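Worked example (supplementary).
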Amino acid sequence: EIVMTQSPAILSVSPGESATLSCRASQSVSSDLAWYQQKPGQAPRLLIYGASTRATGIPARFSGSGSGTEFTLTITSLQSEDFAVYYCQQYNDWPPYTFGQGTKLEIK
Amino acid sequence: EVQLVESGGGLVQPGGSLRLSCAASGFTFISYEMNWVRQAPGKGLEWVSYISSSGSTIYHADSVKGRFTISRDNGKNSLYLQMNSLRAEDTAVYYCARRWNWFDRWGQGTLVTVSS
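After joint prediction of all chains, the assembly is encoded as:
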């Protein structure tokens, strides 16, 4: 089973600034990596797939990068609606699909 | 508009059973593989089960293998999760999710609480 590890667990950033979230896989997942955003009381929403491709309707301030075992989600010019929990997920080697434990992006 | 609507959650005693449903609309259901993903209160996401578009291939997480069964009825555009021998640790919001390699659409979830 591929273990996904996200860091940091909590990230405090001011609106208008940028945030960088990290995700590491225990073995290579190529570019088979997705990022999801989840707000309180809501279902997860797909942000990024293929490590760097934005899903339909996702603003350009969200960008993903990386391949192999190291991945990054960058959010520039943070808006109030961006403060949420973010999860990475690998779909290279399954079952099982595995998710990171999440990074909570909070307002500083 | 793509919609996934889960139902069937509720309070059940340990050892009990529950059947979750997910009604799909706005897309060609038979063309998509589907999954169940759960989230325990205050915790992260855990994949539970997968079913192929035809229903011929099924996978379950080790944590639910032998107790949960995923199924689908393509004629009714519906996905199901039969949950037996429920445990306290199965308490979670259960989401159905459409698969396109990644999980591109999710339902709003249904809460299952296992408690005496």
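Two points are worth noting when inspecting this output. Chain A has no helices and eleven strands. The mean pLDDT of chain A is 97.
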